[in-house]
Amino acid sequence: MRRSYENALRLLETRRRKTRPTNPAAPATPQDFATPSGNPTVKGIPSLVGMKEWLQALGHSENDVDNLNIIHITGTKGKGSTCAFTRSFLHTHGLKTGYPKRIGLYTSPDLQCIRERIQIDNQPITENLFTQYFFEVWETLTSPGLEIATGTTRQPRYLQLLALLAFHTFIKENVDAAIFETHHGGEYDATNVIRKPVVTGITSLGMDHVAQLGPTVEDIAWHKSGIFKPGAPAFSVSQETGPGEVLRKRATERNTDLTFVSSSHTLPVNEKVLSAPVQRLNCSLALQLVKRFLQLKDSKYVLDDDDISRGIDGFSWMGRFEVIESGRSRWFLDGAHNTLSLEQAAEWFSKNINAADAPTYRVLIFSHFSEERNGVDLLKCLAYALPKHDAKPDHVIFTTYQEREDGTTRIDKTLKVPETPFPDLCAIYTSLWKEIHPHATVSTEPTIQGAIKLAERISMQQGGMQAFVTGSLHLVGGALNLLRP
């Protein structure tokens, strides 16, 4: 096969499984029953299995991974933003001192293209670099000698392959520091092949991915704290009592110090970046991670007030608490896709729409299709949260993840198709919204482009509007491609 970007994407897509496994991992390991609820939660083959052997097959030792100087971050809400703040502070320090000169960042999912997941120096890696390293990984791990080298005929699944590609890329490109966001959980996550992170961080915890992580927030805390490693300082934002105690216990078991971080009152004023309270908390966590990271690398490294201010000014993270101005239309985009995130996004939207000269007409564009989460529960959360924060929409538009009306899709962005047909699911959403808000005006559009066009027509009729786009990163990514190509 020709080594092209398009062929790399086609091969990567073959490793995506159609559905998540439902059967418990067999045989169950003793650790499976160490979760607070006592129930095994690992389904199928854990994502961590095989990662060490595959890395070795690629020629990367444990020391090679250690030498990436990794900051490992997990949580339920705010992982991506915390990673981005962490990168921004490291970048600012690197500009001043020369360290770190090159910074790798691995996150998921992507909004606009797959290469967003693997970034170096604030930019997604190029198509050429992605293609080169992808085929190096693919050809090694599909070679006839793989079974002899690794003791298994299994090949990496989609997320495992992307994580391996990130490790391979960062090692080959000689980054000085790397920030890794987990996929789901922590204990059995593919990224937990990291043996010696410099520091680890946990963002806000809540109920998400319960099929894989367990039925209680304490179970989720147990899985997330699996990234704790002996001797690597651990930081977490302040948590509720139950999960907080789980984190403390796990830190003790892992022989590491755990520090809980509250929202800092000394951060500089920046209404654009820090207007959402949760972003102040994510920023505060990132700041502590970077301070300790630099201290451990060299005691002379210190972030001063100017570094912190420049780091916040330079922060960017697509699709999270993002505002786009277009004439009399203002678009508020946040890829919230769990109840904790939606509550925070609703509060942020409310805080930012009540300026004296702002349009008063409000539009909500919502879409959510997922095996893992109940879209009805998410919409119900939003239906109550927006009025509570004095941000009830005047017009609601339900749509899909299909971006364009002509049916075209980008080659490096996978279109997620719901199992339930669009008309049926949107009928359910419409019925639910009108049950809660009987006098609401509700529309459905089969594409994101159609939803945006409808909102723009409404804006012209009303002399302006404020649109809130939320419910899924797939929706927000598509909207960003149309609003800001």
Automatic annotation (TrEMBL):
Subcellular location: Cytoplasm; Mitochondrion inner membrane; Mitochondrion matrix
Free-text comment on the cofactor: A monovalent cation.
Top-level lineage group: Eukaryota
Binding site for Mg(2+): 108, 181, 209
GO cellular component, one term: mitochondrial matrix
EC number: 6.3.2.17
Family: Belongs to the folylpolyglutamate synthase family.
Protein name: Folylpolyglutamate synthase
Organism: Penicillium cosmopolitanum
